[in-house]
Design goal:
This protein has about 260 residues and is an alpha/beta fold. Helix content is about 40%, strand content about 20%.
């Protein structure tokens, strides 16, 4: 059997790191894409060490995932590594978990409202980059039949959260991209879904101004009486990557303990 690989965009922390480790424990080697300064590299190394401790390979790229040239170079290196396996390996699971965006209001009296470059960057990184990565993977033959693509969304795609407007727009666009890709890739046997996590304590969540109030509200409203954990999402992703779930595509899978139905 060929070696199984997963590609995690945003692999160094939060959902990406948890999913990388869960997939490694399920038998996947990991290609990880992340963007960290030198101060963040010890945390990245911890993730790599944990993957290797699970008996799998870890090949990580510290880069801007939205940069077209760097994306091409990274995919070329990944393709070369896949070709070293006997038989050649392939990418079976892709997770888009990029959380780089601008958290500013649209209207700010006396403050700093979001600008066009900030809005464009947020949508490009957190939504449009999914399309470009999948396009290149398919064109290179790296994502084959029964492949699974997942994109992390949130309730912000359809709810208003202070300072979250640009990210909310990106999440709504991301879900639209998931539907379109699911339809176009269905004849190839590739499944594409979004995962909507409940409010989770991640580095990205802590950057939201006033996130303490959002946490308080989520704890009050969630019928399961706790916040979502990254391990909840990682376990769901592994389950939905299994052979018996290949008829699920083009949808938003909620992993939130019932939070979004209240």
């Amino acid at each position: 059997m060929s070696q199984k690989w997963a590609l995690i965009l945003g692999a160094s922390s939060g959902f990406g790191a948890a999913c990388a480790l869960a997939l490694a424990r399920a038998g996947y080697s990991i290609f990880g894409v992340h963007m960290d300064l030198r101060s963040g590299m010890p945390r990245v190394q911890e993730v790599i060490d944990a993957i290797r401790a699970a008996g799998q390979e870890a090949v990580f790229f510290n880069m801007n995932a939205a940069d077209e040239v760097k994306r091409g170079a990274a995919l070329e290196a990944m393709q070369a590594r896949l070709g070293q396996s006997t038989p050649p390996g392939s990418v079976h699971v892709v997770l888009h978990s990029l959380a780089v965006g601008t958290l500013r209001p649209f209207i700010a009296d006396g403050g700093e409202a979001i600008t066009k470059p900030q809005m464009d960057m947020t949508l490009d990184v957190m939504a449009n980059s999914l399309v470009y990565w999948v396009q290149d993977l398919v064109a290179r033959g790296m994502l084959g039949e029964d492949g699974r693509v997942f994109a992390m969304t949130s309730a912000g795609s359809h709810r208003v959260i202070p300072y979250y407007g640009a990210v909310s727009a990106a999440k709504a666009a991301l879900e639209s991209h998931v539907r379109q890709l699911a339809c176009e890739l269905a004849p190839r046997g590739i499944r594409v879904n979004a995962i909507q996590a409940g409010l989770t304590d991640t580095p990205a969540m802590r950057k939201i101004p006033g996130h303490e109030k959002v946490v308080e509200y989520a704890l009050q409203m969630n019928p399961s009486r706790r916040m979502t954990r990254v391990e909840d999402v990682a376990g769901a992703l592994v389950s939905f990557s299994s052979p018996g779930t290949g008829w699920i595509t083009g949808t938003v899978i909620r992993v939130d303990g019932g939070e979004d139905v209240i």
